[in-house]
């Protein structure tokens, strides 16, 4: 890498056309400017100026180095402007969370993107381990998980909680465990874990563990998990966000159970990182969605 200070001295010398004037502009001595020129020529391995009496002209190498020096100036100016502006309506923000929470976030995000055409959002549904590692390794600006990780690279903030919902077909009234088993479980990647947490609380005498549930179907696409329930094919267990994001939720029923079960929501960001204004804006929006789910 060519020395940035020597490049600036060289560019100023060419622009002023005189060693003394260059020294005055740079707040240096004239020998100091000459020394920077000699060091730069040594680093390049070619003479940069062709002297003609008290004046000089650029050699071909000097023209190339001058172009580089001016490009460096432009890049630094653009960087300083970007740092100063820190525009909350420009740039990219990356967010990672569960599939169900991502579906709850989307309707809140789109109006913001319409209002801010230069703002870009990358929203990814990832398993919780991937959320934690992704934020810790700075691949995501923000992450949402259901527990506070112990990773020292992360700063965590509890932003709310959401209920685990037992979802039934809209017309189903019988919420006994035997009735659920007769209908059948619509399984999904997190379904057994959710069922374990909810059923152990509410059906302790009958529930023998999630691995013994009568599975009717398995659905891997988060947005489609409630569909067979809406069609009367089975029941499932999802966080509140998965229920609210389903377009035909009027065809579903959230069963009222004696012992509700909630999962906390934590917002993650990399510890010690000063978040840009655009990420702070999106973080506030995430908190509002989490607060709404807690009230549901």
UniProtKB/TrEMBL annotation:
Taxonomy, superkingdom: Bacteria
Entry annotated with the keyword RNA-binding: no
Keyword annotations from UniProtKB, A to Z: DNA-binding, Transcription, Transcription regulation
UniProt keyword Transcription regulation present: yes
GO molecular function, one term: DNA binding
SUPFAM superfamilies per record: Periplasmic binding protein-like II, Winged helix' DNA-binding domain
Domain HTH lysR-type: 1-59
Family statement: Belongs to the LysR transcriptional regulatory family.
Protein name in the entry: DNA-binding transcriptional LysR family regulator
Lineage of the organism: Bacteria, Pseudomonadati, Pseudomonadota, Alphaproteobacteria, Rhodobacterales
